[in-house]
């Protein structure tokens, strides 16, 4: 699967199977995105390659040893690393074709905004 940021500076290719598509309502994801939830899916690091002219995204540590990646040119949030060894997360909507990925859970549902029902 391929994907990238809004401007195309950060691009990636993932050859492994997508794992655990989910929503997240933690305070960090809410502030990072400016939205009530972010959508994430993980891929094995083996078979994951940064392919765009910008190389890897700029990384920001949101939790100890957990980083979120964004494009320094357009600001798009595209990735996460450090959540689970051997996996890299990408925002579902950063994928060029995300039609087949449906979130199965909402992490930090207790932090969901009251005007949007959390995913079970």
Strand count, sense and barrel status of the largest sheet are: 7 strands, mixed
Oligomerization category of the chains in this entry: single chain
Mean pLDDT: 95
Classification by helices and strands: mainly beta
Uncertain parts: none
What is the CATH C-level name?
Answer: Alpha Beta
The overall strand count is 10
Strand order of the largest sheet: 6-7-8-9-4-3-10
Order of helices and strands: EEEHEEEEEEE
What is the overall silhouette? globular
Q: What is the straight-line distance between the termini? A: 27 Å
Overall tally of structural domains: 1
Estimate the helix proportion, in percent. under 10%
Stated plainly, the CATH topology is called glutathione-dependent formaldehyde- activating enzyme (gfa)
Q: Report the sheet-strand fraction.
A: 35-45%
At CATH level 2, the architecture is Alpha-Beta Complex
**What is the fourth-level CATH superfamily?**
glutathione-dependent formaldehyde- activating enzyme (gfa)
Number of helices: 1
Family: Belongs to the Gfa family.
Pfam families: GFA (PF04828)
GO molecular function: carbon-sulfur lyase activity; metal ion binding
Organism: Nocardia macrotermitis
């Amino acid at each position: 699967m391929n994907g990238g940021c809004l401007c195309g500076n950060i691009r990636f290719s993932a050859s492994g199977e997508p794992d655990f598509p989910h929503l997240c309502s933690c305070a960090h994801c809410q502030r990072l995105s400016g939205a009530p939830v972010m959508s994430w899916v993980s891929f094995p690091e083996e078979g994951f390659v940064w392919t765009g002219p910008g190389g890897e995204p700029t990384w920001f540590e949101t939790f100890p040893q957990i980083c979120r990646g964004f494009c320094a040119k357009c600001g798009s949030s595209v990735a996460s690393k450090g959540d689970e060894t051997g996996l890299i997360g990408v925002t579902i909507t950063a994928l060029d074709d995300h039609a087949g990925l449906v979130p199965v859970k909402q992490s930090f549902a207790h932090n969901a905004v009251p005007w949007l029902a959390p995913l079970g």
